[in-house]
Amino acid sequence: MKRKFFTLLAICFFIINFKAYPVYQQGKIITSESDTIACSIRFYQEGILLSDKKIVYRKNEEKFKIELKDIKAVLLDDKTYHVFPAYSYDESKLPNIDESKFYRIGEVIVKGKVELIQAYYIIMTGYTPSPYGGHSGGRISVGGSLSLVKNNEVKLISRSTFNRSVGIMFRDCEAIVNKMNDLKYSLENLIEIVTEGNKVCYE
Questions:
Q1: pLDDT for the residue numbered 54
Q2: Distance CA 105, CA 75 (A)
Q3: Comparing 137 with 86, which gets the higher pLDDT?
Q4: Boundaries of domain holding 68
Q5: What is the per-residue pLDDT across 155-165, written as a single tens digit (0 to 9) for each?
Q6: What residues does 145 pair with on adjacent strands?
Q7: E strand or H helix at 6, and its extent?
Q8: Which residues is 26 bridged to in the sheet?
Q9: Strand partners of residue 118
Q10: Overall domain count for the chain
């Protein structure tokens, strides 16, 4: 488990510098209405499903796009991806913001009432605008992040936000709060924390 988490850290706190070429793989999309779409889903050579406003898929030789806000989950091989808000927000304070901008999709690392989700995103560097439209040159890289998601509450995880974010998400879980107060956990224990918290307090 520790080896897996150190791999997550390497992915999430450093940019993966490779050219990301999309390919298609058979999977399922679970819509927000709980309908299931069996189709070929676009992802990337390293097996990464990237956060974007839409997921591209093929069905019966046709290409379709579905917005993240209309997706509940994506299933690819043995991986489950959930759609979640990009960050916690009060809708009453943001009445004119495009709803589609609030959603991301990421691989579920730990399932439960509090989920640990790893999301990826594209970074484009060195691109020059083309007079004919689009861009030329440059390089596509992939960055990543870890988030804790509980209902519609989201906290991004990093070394600087670890204690505060975990404390907020498990504020009603005395077992985790006590261990956090006693400094018994560090970022490297994140999978353990989320797994234990879900088991002890929310099952």
A1: 87
A2: 12
A3: 86
A4: 2-202
A5: 988 888 889 99
A6: 119
A7: helix 2-12
A8: 40
A9: 107, 146
A10: 1
